[in-house]
Amino acid sequence: MKVTIPEITNKELADLLKSSGMTDEEVESFLKRCENNCCCAEKVRIMRKTRKALLDTIHKEQAVLDKLDNLIWNIEHGGAL
Predict the structure, then answer these.
(1) What residue numbers bound the domain in which 37 lies?
(2) In a domain? residue 14
(3) Is 72 among the domain residues?
(4) What's the predicted TM-score (pTM) here?
(5) pLDDT by residue for the chain (81 residues), tens digit each?
(6) Per the domain annotation, does 3 fall within a domain?
(7) Checking CA distances to 12, which of 28, 60, 68, 74 falls within 20 to 30 Å?
(8) How many domains does the chain have?
(9) SS in 3 state form for 9-62?
(10) Residues 50 and 17 sit within 8 Å (Cβ to Cβ)
(11) Which of 41, 14, 52 is nearest to 30 (CA)?
């Protein structure tokens, strides 16, 4: 499924980038690149780097959830801590 965002404001873009883990300085730099018509490849590189970092965080959190689920299952089925 392809997701397109035909019209996104700078504020919406900034909010998205911040919530994905970029610092205020990184967001400001990215927005300046957009205003200066920086090459698409550079913008995509920055966004892919941010995406990878976010995905790494999600995977670490998922590993913690998996361990907790396993511990709960063991306790419920007669295991001990």
Answers:
(1) 10-76
(2) yes
(3) yes
(4) 0.73
(5) 455 566 888 899 999 999 999 999 999 999 888 777 777 888 899 999 999 999 999 999 999 999 999 999 999 998 877
(6) no
(7) 60
(8) 1
(9) CHHHHHHHHHHCCCCHHHHHHHHHHHHCCCCHHHHHHHHHHHHHHHHHHHHHHH
(10) yes
(11) 14
